[in-house]
Amino acid sequence: MKHPRKVWCAGISSGATTLVEGAAGTGKTSALDEAAAMWEERGHRVIRAHGSELDRELPFGIVAQLFEPVLDEGVDVPPDALGALRMTTPSPDFAVLHAVYRLAVKLAGDSGLLVVVDDVHWADAPSLRWLAYLALRMRRQPISLLLSIGADERCDDPSFGEVVNQPTCERVVLGDLDDAAAAELAARVYGGAVEPAFVDACLAATDGNPQLTARLLRAMSDDGVPPRAASAWRAAEYGTFVRGEVVLGRLRRRPPKVVAAAQCVAVLGPDPHPAVLGELTGMGAVELADALRTLEGIGALGAPVRAAVLDDMPPATRCDLHLRAARSLRNHGADDRAVAEQLLETPPGADPWAGEVLDSAARDAVSRGEPDAAARLLWRSLREPQGNPARAFRLLGTAELVGGLPGATSRLREAFQSSDDPVEQAQTAIPLAIALHAEQDPAELTSVLSSAEARVDGPLAVRLREHRLMHAFGWAEAVPATVVPEDEPVNILYRASTNELDAPAAVELTMRVVADRQDAMSRIAAATTLSIADRGDDAIALMDKVLQQEHAPVVRGLAFLYRSNAHRRNGDLQAGRTDAEAAEPLLRDEKRWPTVSAMYATLCVDLLMEDNRVDEAEAVLDKVCSEGVRASWAMAGVLAARGRLNIVRGDARTALADFLAAHEHAARWPFRNPALLPWRAGAALACAALGDGERARQYADEELARARAWGAPRMLGMTLRAAGRVNSGAAGRALLESAVVVLRTSSARLELARALTDLGVVLRRQGDTSTARGHLRDALDLAKKCGSAALSARAHAELVATGSGPRRMRQTGPTALTPTEHQVANLAARGRSNEEIATTLLVPAHAIEGLLSGACRKLGVSGRLQLPEVLDLAD
């Protein structure tokens, strides 16, 4: 708001030229108005003109505007000047230019003259020639020249260069409003004080543009919006409207071809296809480039303006443009998503291929995790006379299922029942089975998959059998009578779960076939097999691939869930917690996904107990025990988790009842692999705590035999540890020593820390405090590194009980980092941002800051800038 006075000060010098530059809306015209008013207040004469695109076509059009009031006053005009002032002289010869100049000198007299031309870049060539003539000769006259030009405009006429390149020409660049100027403007509009937060919001909504800010404030004031912080949020809404209206007004003053280009850009959206835009506008490359440059200069390419242009178009014109755009995009090879966006704005029946394109775009939207967008496309597809209603209903139901929208099951059931095509029906059966699983209807689920399978063969029949196997993990009633081919990951998981395969065989088969499987279900099944077989790193790598390729919320939630569990089994509790947090919002609807909810609850309970958050763990268990979960196989895991929680609480009797209930529940299924449900090991510990040593050893021996048969180091080590705890004397010590040996070959570092702790306790009680102390120190180091507060506290207490306080723990340096912290620190040391690290590691962005802070603390540095040196020293 201080610029006009600066302009005035620059313009009072006789013979001076001032050029005011500024983007649209920065107040160029207002600045010139105020300067002119101040000149007139001091008794000086002002003549002025405002350039427009039409003036370029009128010889001496600007000059005629300047001197029109003079003609009306009856001032004596030199004869040679009359032709220019009446725009009848086509060319600016010397006599004409000089005659008009002498008229300006006459008007200046003794008081002075200010010649003002707004938007001089639109001036015609003869007028520019006269302005150059004036600028060169007015230095000894009481005449000043004040011009304005848009910041994004240019004037290539040599005469303009002669004017502005003189040493006496001063350039004044208008900028955005600062806080003080904006507050002053707001107070003037509202007639009183305004709160700073309100002013800040208005500035943000208009990017500080003075014209937009003034209009925004007037609009809000007229609508009664109070200038308080509580109303600040409304500034963005008003800003969008005002910006569109202001630029739309500028656009209406442009030639028809520029308006047509704006309409086509509005229809095509940001970054329009060049060939398509040229085809829609009917312009050549050079003409189109000029039009786009004009649109950019007036700010007509932004989203608010595009929306305003669309609203301003007649409906028939807009519809025709969308239809032409759809056809042109398709002809130029654009993807179905872009074509479908145009079809949404057109009436049905125009093209026979429309339904197919809309369906394809809907499938893509589902894969991206955008069910609402998919539903919108499919409802439009259903209106196409050449469309496939059964297919559209299948896709619509799938989209609603993925998005948790109501009506998915009925929509899919209708598509399944109305289809006469066996392939279409089989493709519908798969999402319908998932919906029926969520609604706890195993009978209809089995019927749907079986009837669909009977009508097809080949890969599609295999997929149906795979789904029957996967649903078998939900209900015993869904166990299939048919068999999936042995080289399918789902079949390998099923056979591993039923003890038909041991761990080495299951791993060998899985690793052999999974490389060729690209679908998420196969990878999740393979990751489950690898995880229970103690191949956590391979399981994590598979889930990384799923997260890289899949966008559907439920699939991503499952990938985070399984990856979290693999991290937990490996002993990286921090990574497990991070992934569990990422999975929670994607899997929180317990009624829709009871099996998954139970699995998630079991995982959370184990993670919370490692943090000594026992009450929170109990609350999770109470919440998940709904009727839907009780019907699922995963309820056995919930019951076993409750048993582990009661062991921690010291309630061995209730814990034993929980473990036995878990066994009883799981007995309805054929899954006997102890790695899925190690209930006997838990029951053994509960019996030992109750003083029933014989029964405890019986449970431990049975679990140990099953663990040896399975052959995975983690499961075997855990069972050896349980057996060591329920056996006394040398036998117990030997079993615990064996557990340590076995677990050292495993990736399960947390289980190794438990075994070392238990062995240290036994050795201390047997009097071998020196050896006990070494094991307990190692256990404490591992527990700290894994992030288990509960085990760290126990190992620390047992170490103190040996008679020696703990040595200085290795809580600093690279060896103290968890694997995930190490990855984060290394990427940060290489200059990656938090967002880039999150993308690389496939974890939520908000988790990176905590991981990085923990890594810096352990490495003894204050921030990421010091990481390269510390990590280099470590390497």
TrEMBL record:
This is AAA family ATPase. One of its GO terms (cellular component) is cytoplasm. GO terms for biological process: regulation of DNA-templated transcription. It holds the Pfam family AAA_16. The keyword Transmembrane helix does not apply. InterPro entries: AAA_16, P-loop_NTPase, Sig_transdc_resp-reg_C-effctor, TPR-like_helical_dom_sf, Tscrpt_reg_LuxR_C, WH-like_DNA-bd_sf. The keyword Nucleotide-binding applies. Residues 814-871 form the HTH luxR-type domain. Keywords: ATP-binding, Nucleotide-binding.
